Amino acid sequence: MAEKRLGKIYGVGVGPGDPELITKKAERVLRECQVIGIPAASREECTAYQVAKRAVPEIGNKPVVAVPVPMTKDRQVRRQAYEEGSARLFEVLKEGRDIAFLNLGDPTVYGTYMELHDRLVREGCEAELVSGVPSFCAVAAQLGVALGSGRESILIQPGCYEKEDCAKTRILMKSGGKLSAVKQRLTAMEEAGEAKAWAVSNCGMPDQSVCRDIRLLDESAGYFTTIIVKEKGTGNGDGTVCE
Amino acid sequence: MAEKRLGKIYGVGVGPGDPELITKKAERVLRECQVIGIPAASREECTAYQVAKRAVPEIGNKPVVAVPVPMTKDRQVRRQAYEEGSARLFEVLKEGRDIAFLNLGDPTVYGTYMELHDRLVREGCEAELVSGVPSFCAVAAQLGVALGSGRESILIQPGCYEKEDCAKTRILMKSGGKLSAVKQRLTAMEEAGEAKAWAVSNCGMPDQSVCRDIRLLDESAGYFTTIIVKEKGTGNGDGTVCE
Question: CA–CA separation, B224 vs B208, rounded Å?
Answer without folding.
Answer: 10
